[in-house]
Automatic annotation (TrEMBL):
Protein name as catalogued: Transglycosylase SLT domain-containing protein
Family: Belongs to the transglycosylase Slt family.
Gene3D superfamilies in the cross-refs: 1.10.530.10
Organism: Crenobacter luteus
Leader sequence residues: 1-22
Domain Transglycosylase SLT: 80-178
């Protein structure tokens, strides 16, 4: 079983969660598995997190479909994801999902907090993996994949915690006793990536 599958099986299942504006509902199945969706399918679903339209422009500039940037590097982005996912034994569908949610594949994306490129690397994270130019797609994507692999190992394959740590930082997840931090952005981020992953694996 892949690491992301183990994390899904032991933590939560996602379906129909839009990565833009969407409330998140929670339901606990008889087997104890939690399910989060963007709508209440029956009375067992309770509102878990109410989203709201962003008060300011998107954190990533010029976002579009994955790889659909001004330089038209869609195939390059996909090729780099596949290449480095195989090299480092990380599920490429997971990497694609992270890239979709982080930057929509925009290799030139820069967030207000200083995260750079398709994988939205913070300078400190880039430095951890010897990145000399975070705007270089190959260095950016490989370092992001290595960081995902590290976080998956750190959290023993628990994908929701891995994604929470990728978004909010491993120290933040640790401070909350290895639980998803109660931040709206992080909770919606985890839901959005898992929903995108589910979609990728159905393609």
């Amino acid at each position: 079983m892949a690491a992301w599958q183990a994390g899904m099986a032991t933590a939560l299942a996602l379906s129909c969660v839009a990565p833009a504006v969407a409330d998140v509902y929670r339901s606990e199945r008889p087997d104890g598995l939690l399910e989060f969706t963007s709508q209440a399918h029956d009375s067992s679903y309770q509102l878990y997190l109410r989203d709201a339209p962003p008060a300011q422009p998107s954190r990533v500039a010029k976002r579009g479909k994955i790889g659909d940037t001004a330089s038209g590097r869609k195939h390059e982005v996909h090729a780099l994801i596949e290449k480095f996912s195989r090299k480092h034994a990380v599920d490429s569908a997971l990497v694609r999902a992270v890239v979709e949610v982080e930057s929509k594949g925009n290799i030139r994306a820069v967030s207000p907090k200083g995260a750079i490129g398709a994988m939205q690397l913070m300078p400190a994270t880039a430095a951890m993996y010897g990145v000399t130019d975070a705007t270089d797609p190959a260095q950016n994507i490989e370092a992001g994949i290595l960081h995902l692999k590290y976080l998956l190992s750190l959290h023993k394959g628990n994908l929701p915690l891995t994604l929470a740590a990728y978004n909010a930082g491993e120290g933040t997840v640790s401070r909350y006793s290895k639980r998803i931090p109660p931040y709206r952005e992080t909770m919606l981020y985890v839901a959005a990536v898992l929903a995108r992953l589910q979609s990728n694996n159905l393609e």
